[in-house]
Structure formats: C-alpha cells, structure tokens
Amino acid sequence: xxxxxxxxxxxxxxxxxxxxxxxxxxxxxxxxxxxxxxxxxxxxxxxxxxxxxxxxxxxxxxxxxxxxxxxxxxxxxxxxxxxxxxxxxxxxxxxxxxxxxxxxxxxxxxxxxxxxxxxxxxxxxxxxxxxxxxxxxxxxxxxxxxxxxxxxxxxxxxxxxxxxxxxxxxxxxxxxxxxxxxxxxxxxxxxxxxxxxxxxxxxxxxxxxxxxxxxxxxxxxxxxxxxxxxxxxxxxxxxxxxxxxxxxxxxxxxxxxxxxxxxxxxxxxxxxxxxxxxxxxxxxxxxxxxxxxxxxxxxxxxxxxxxxxxxxxxxxxxxxxxxxxxxxxxxxxxxxxxxxxxxxxxxxxxxxxxxxxxxxxxxxxxxxxxxxxxxxxxxxxxxxxxxxxxxxxxxxxxxxxxxxxxxxxxxxxxxxxxxxxxxxxxxxxxxxxxxxxxxxxxxxxxxxxxxxxxxxxxxxxxxxxxxxxxxxxxxxxxxxxxxxxxxxxxxxxxxxxxxxxxxxxxxxxxxxxxxxxxxxxxxxxxxxxxxxxxxxxxxxxxxxxxxxxxxxxxxxxxxxxxxxxxxxxxxxxxxxxxxxxxx
Length: 583
Prior knowledge:
Number of strands: 20
Number of helices: 18
CATH topology of the largest domain: Rossmann fold
Number of domains: 4
C-alpha cells in the first residue's frame, strides 16, 4: 500500500475552490494521487503562500520571490558598476522558479562540520545556506545524511537549524581591483583598506585546460636567483615544487621570485595556508617595501582560521589566477604550503568519517592536489596566450622526501627545488641541493644567453661534491685536486645570494661566464661576494651597451663572451690570493 503524502499550504486566507483544485492537480501530477492537502493560516504571508511537501518547499511569498530574484542576479557572469543595465537584463531573463526549495535539518554541528538530514537531491560541492545566513559546502553524501563544511563561524548553528539548497557551487570574486590587497579564502578583504569591487565571480573548482588549449612551456620566468635560473630554470606555465625542512628558506625563494617580477608584466598571487597572522603581515610589508605589492595579491587562510577555510584557500587563489590568465596575462601563484593544506583536508575527512589511509590521509588526497596543480598551464594563442606558473611549497620532516604528501606532489609537478638544512646552516643560501633538485622543462625555459653561459656548471659542481667527499679520507692532495677543490668552492660561494637581491639576466650571464672561465680561480672564498658586486658594477659602467643587448636579445655571442672573460680576469687581480697559498 502506497504511503500517504501530507502537503501543507500556508497563506493568509484559505484558497478558493478553483485554487484548491489547481493545487491538488499539481500535487497529483508531481507526487501521485496519494497526497492530502492541509491549509494553515499564516497572516505574515500576505499576497503569497508556501507549499511544503515533506522536505520540499515551494516559496511564493514576497520574501521567497525576492530571494529567487537575488539568487538569479548573483548567478550573472559579471557584477560591476553598470547596475541599471544589469538589473534590466536580469529582469528580462528571470522567471519565477516553479521548482521546490529543498530544505534540510541540522543533526549535529561542531569543528566546522555539520551533519544534515533532508537534502536528498543536493550535489557534491554545492553551496548550502543555514537559516542565519551562514554558508557551507557539501563534501560528503551518505545514504541518510549529508556532510557539510562550514565557511563561517559555526557557533550560531544549532541542531535543528534549517538548511536550504542554493543550486550553486562555490565561487570567488575576482577582478583587477584585487591587486595590492590581502583577502581571505572567500575574497573578503582583511587588510583594513575597505571593500573590493569585483568584476565577476569565478568557480573555485574549475576544469583544467585540455591539451589542445595549451602550448609548450618555453618562455622563462626568472627567479633572479643564480642557482635556480642557471641550473633549474622555471618556465611560464610550469609547476615547480619547492621542498625542504622547516626554516630552510622556502618562502624566501618564493618572495624573491615575486620581487623579481617587477616591471615584467606578471601578476603574482601568494596563497598563505595555515600561517601565523604576523607572518602574513610581515610578507605583505616586505612586498610593499620592494614595490611588489602593486602587482600582487595575498590570499590568506591563517592558522587561526577553520580547516574548511584553509582547505578552500588554494582553489580560491587559483580561481583568481585564472581570471588574469584568461585575459592573456602571465600569473605566478605560490601555495605556501600544501603540507598544511593536506593536514586541514585530513582533519575535515576524519570529521566526515571517511576511511583514513596512509599516514591517516584520505584516499583522494592525491586527486586533491593534482586537480589543483593541473590548472597551471600556458594557454594557446587562440585562448589568449596567458599562463599560470605554480610554485607549490611542501615541508618535509627531517629531510624525508619519501613521505606520503611529498612523494605525491613530486609526481604531479615538473621538477623540484630541494633545500637542505645542512647547507642552510653552513651559510650556503639559497640552500639548494644541486644533486636532488631538477627541472623537467630544463633548457627550454632558459634564454640562449643563460644556457650558453651556464655551460658545465652543474657537472663541475657534481665533480666538486664527489671530490670533496673523497678528500675527507686523504691527508695529502696533489696540486690538480687542490685547484679543482678551490674552483668548486668558488662556485659554491658564487651561488650564495643575499635575500631580496635578485640578479637581472645580464648580471647572471656576466657572473656565470666569469666563473666557468676560471676567472675567479685565485680569489679567496670569503672575497668572492665582494668581487661579484664590484665586477657587476664595473662591467655595467664600462659596457652598458652589451648589458642592454643581453637583456633585449637573450643572445650571447662569442665576442661578448671573450669581452666578459677578459674584463673579469682584470677585475679579479686585486682580489687574488698569493700563488703560493695554493700549494
């Protein structure tokens, strides 16, 4: 026997016979003949009504009609200053929705997670609204309930609260006005500089560009760091992982890269995940000090924020990056760091009662990061030619790159810059381990000048490291070995670079050509830094035309190379140690 369905009609006056007939016809068509209709007086619904059938609500009250219109307005592709044309267009396109407004009830709430009963047709990733205006996103679909993460404070949500569907997915407000600002994971400004007028809204979850829509990564995105640009170059559209233990200079490399984009028409987005508020403020002040904040945006989900906000932060930052990429701009986005992001998602998953896997992370943690990093690309010219270059950061524990999250992200990215604690504490900064670092794009992302200047640098450093290990077991060294060690030690000193002091392309070429030609061979290691400063200054004064040529053409001719070598040898004479000191 079919169970009777009870429908309740709320209005200020009872329906007349014709209206009652139409209601019953609608109910029989939608739910079958076994439906009973009950009328209850509600004087607040003047000129309208609400029809409730189980968990579904047909809201034709004044508030319901207004809400449907505002939601239709919010689904427009743009929200700008042209308010009147926008309202006219929305009114022309909008029709009162005859679909039910499905509602549910909160069963339990806590730790940023709500368990909801009644939303039978809700979709994964859909935004839901609680009765006090708080937003949530569906993250778990069970047989009898729905798991939802809450973006706002959950103290005002109680068991028994009403939740309703919106039919929309999470979106991030985007626009040029975000440049120079610090916002949270939902695009709300947190820098005290007033509201931001968005140009449009981009979905937080978006499909990565297909192969046909991409083009090869062959344009350099210089970091200004000699050790990276010479041996592990990064191209526009690449995903290069920065990995290392805590306090080894990972964020410093990211900030140097942002500062080096000044005047290069590249938008920079820094996503801070799980960091202290004071750290984010310090980063903001550093970028302002070096004139980099005007082309940068900071998206911050601080350590004091809830796990759902930390989870959504990198996707929100990527949505903002896609706005600029789709306009044909080049974008650099830094995720600092995805280790904390994975921890936040693990906490959410455990609260949603998902089965834990390796290291207690859920099984879809790989997909979590791959669908984020795959959105980085260099678009084809037909799509505008814009690009997103991603520098994800991952923190290791005691140098363990074989842990779950590091191995996952290493397999997703196009190479990694590995920072070693021993190098950092010995004064070698940036503390890049040349042996473990790699760029799978390689020379394709270098200009011909830098590629030619770098020459055998990586091979020479590898021979130096190998020789250095063996000399620890030998008390006597021949002259050739001593010279090789002195040369390698000089190269290591050359690769030391102060923070916030990026090199331009011509400066890198001058230093690399001089070093590979052994022009610094006789210089004391502790004088290499002073020599490089003087070499660059004197060469720029004497050969500004060659410097401009290197910057503009990216080519290094043999004649220019000989001029650099001869100039470096002459400049090195005052810094050279006595010949007998080598023997």
